[in-house]
Design a protein that fits this description.
- This protein has 240 residues and is an alpha/beta fold.
- It contains nine helices and six strands.
- It has helices at residues 29-35, 40-60, 73-78, 81-92, 94-102, 117-123, 146-160, 169-173, 221-233; strands spanning 21-25, 65-72, 105-110, 137-144, 186-189, 208-211.
- Strand 3 (105-110), helix 6 (117-123) and strand 4 form a beta-alpha-beta unit.
- Helix 1 crosses helix 2 (40-60).
- The longest helix has 21 residues, at 40-60.
- The chain is globular, with a radius of gyration of 18 Å.
- The termini are far apart.
- The relative contact order is 0.19.
């Protein structure tokens, strides 16, 4: 399966301060398919193609880290096989498509335990180290649960901290799936939903949130520009 980027956009580049890390909850693939009278599998394929587009748009905007929430651990545990199989097929094709079209490094993040072995093999190692300052990194959140991520990090930090020194926030942060990458500056959720659904709970502490009505396969370059413009127009006080 291959995913070609969408057609180009003539919208101007967004001016303003730097956006280092964009995170997206890519919601609405099933609703998009049903609204167009298509099979759910077509919605997942269209959504996967939009992820490839997103990485290219971020390249243009000089956003060098992207994290896309594709499927939660809860969904892997609860959705029927006839729905999961096409979803996972589309997701498994993404690393190769992103690397082919844009040359970005792809990192699957989350818990791979509930994935079929063939899908795990195609995705490669989960939660690989990310060097500090790494650029052009696309994190694909698969089998992800924010509570589990924090619990895993806390247990690892506690186990690896000497007995005479308590674990601190920095120690815990080093064991998150995000590793040494910066926390997201902006989190976008599509499909009109106004919640994080457990996405990057620790890292979202200072992130701006933007909610978009477009279903994920309908998300366009102009929708991204709108989110980024609003983010850059906000005045941050950080509690002062």
């Amino acid at each position: 399966m291959s995913f070609a980027p969408g057609d180009g956009s003539a919208e101007p580049e967004v001016p303003g301060g730097r956006l280092r890390h964009l995170a997206v909850v890519a919601d609405g693939n099933r609703r998009w398919a049903r609204a167009h009278g298509m099979a759910v599998a077509d919605g997942y394929r269209a959504g996967a193609g939009r992820v490839v587009d997103l990485v290219g748009w971020c390249d243009e905007l000089q956003v060098h880290v992207v994290t896309v929430f594709l499927v939660s651990a809860r969904n892997l545990e609860r959705r029927p096989a006839e729905e999961l199989d096409p979803m996972l097929e589309a997701i498994a094709a993404l690393p190769r498509a992103i690397e082919h079209h844009h040359g970005w490094r792809v990192r699957p993040v989350g818990d791979s335990g509930a994935l079929p072995a063939p899908v795990r093999r195609r995705l490669g190692p989960f939660n690989p180290p990310a060097p500090a300052g790494a650029r052009r990194v696309a994190n694909l959140a698969i089998g992800y649960d924010g509570h589990r991520e924090i619990l895993h990090a806390a247990l690892k930090a506690s186990a690896d901290t000497p007995d005479d020194r308590p674990a601190d926030f920095g120690a815990l942060t080093r064991y998150l799936y995000n590793d040494a990458l910066p926390a997201p500056d902006l989190i976008v959720r599509t499909a009109g939903e106004h919640r994080l659904s457990g996405f990057m709970l620790w890292q979202a502490f200072d992130a701006d949130l933007h909610f978009c009505d477009a279903l994920w396969p309908d998300f366009q370059h102009i929708d991204l520009l709108e989110a980024v413009k609003r983010h850059r127009a906000r005045t941050r006080t950080y509690g002062s």
